[in-house]
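QUALITY CONTROL LOG
STEP: pairwise intake check
CHECKER ROLE: data steward
CRITERIA: each record must contain a sequence immediately followed by its structure tokens, with no blank fields

ENTRY 1 OF 2
RESULT FIELD BELOW
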Amino acid sequence: MEGMELAPKVKNTYRAVIELMIEGADLNSLTVAEITARAGIGKGTAYEYFSNKEEMIAGALFYEVECSCRDLCGRIEKQKNLYEKMNLILMDMEKHIVKTNCFLRAVQILMDNSAISSKLHEMIRTKRANEILIMDMIGMIIEEEIPDSQSMTAENRTYLTMMILSKIVCFAMYLFSAKNEIRSDSSIMRELICKNTCQEIENFKKQE
């Protein structure tokens, strides 16, 4: 959302959704009244900016994930190799656990059949070219690691994208125990994921 400054009341609404989510609220059961009460605005005012609660919730998740991915992309470009790029992503997930939670919830919602899911899919499908999400970030990594990636078949490119995405999602899941507490032994898993990703990319290059 580069170049677009959100209205304060929109930011407050997004912040309210994220706070409620972190506190354990079921996003599908949240009401407009609960969101606006936390945001400190009236329901009538909220409808000046949003059509419904699905737009509020999907917008909050989209905004949080987009901001995180944009920040990461700027720092990934400064890393020397694939291992460092993957390590940066995973370490950032550990450091900013609230953002990681938002990412996981967004993934979960995208896989269900709720009205929020439909709205989030729509936002992703119609996003502007300068908005960066996880698939854009992964695409950037692939292009940097495989110079002739543009000539790859769609199937090969999709495979590499899903391979990297699956490792990021699995690490996000790994960070949380059943009690939603952050694991303290994540460094070993992080190293395994980084090494394995590098190996898979190298194996792919040899097959090309």
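ENTRY 2 OF 2
RESULT FIELD BELOW
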Amino acid sequence: MFSNRYIFIYSVVMVVIVAIALTVVAVLLKPKQEYNQRVEKMQNILVSVHVESTTKNAEELFKKYITESLVVNAKGDVIDGINAFDVEMHIENKKKSEDRNLPIFICSAENGQKYYIVPVRGKGLWGPIWGYISFKEDLNTIAGTQFGHKSETPGLGAEINTPGFQNQFIDKTIMNDNGEFVSVMVVKGGAPDSDKHGVDAISGGTITSKALEAMVRDCVKEYTVYFSKIRK
């Protein structure tokens, strides 16, 4: 029979060994994890301008198409010294609006068009939702979107990251005829084809749909001052 002292020492030693092993594994895997996260971010940005990529060619295509990036503030002024790619929206969203760093990625397409890509992030039904929205040179018309989520319901709210839902946003506009910001509404029961500011909500996923609507509205609104300056 082992004594209580032996059992206690053995348990402590095993806990220390396991903790050290886990720490070593985490340290060794961290560079790979960070690389994978960067590549995934590049792929998501490219999807918003309809450029398909793989983990192998994402960096190459990103450098090819994303020819410029910048960070602006709520006043529409460009902030120097901040790398747009390194800005994390889950951190920025915790700040006051006037203190946020707002990244913008500019895509030069093969057709000669320029697209402005902005990140969006919000809260879904069960967890965070996020994405990227690209705008045509008028900074009013949506060229494409990419949306993702952490834990929305499969077959319902999780449909926000499907092409069928995302493609509805193409050619929708965020400004009305009077030049006022109205964003894009997600309409339960379906939006008419003639609605320039509306898309169909997900059947059975109304809460996630409306959460996405709020995310798009609140995040894109942050960029409207800068967009107005560029238009002028």
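INTAKE CHECK: passed for both entries
DESCRIPTIVE NOTE, ENTRY 2: The chain has a mean pLDDT of 93.
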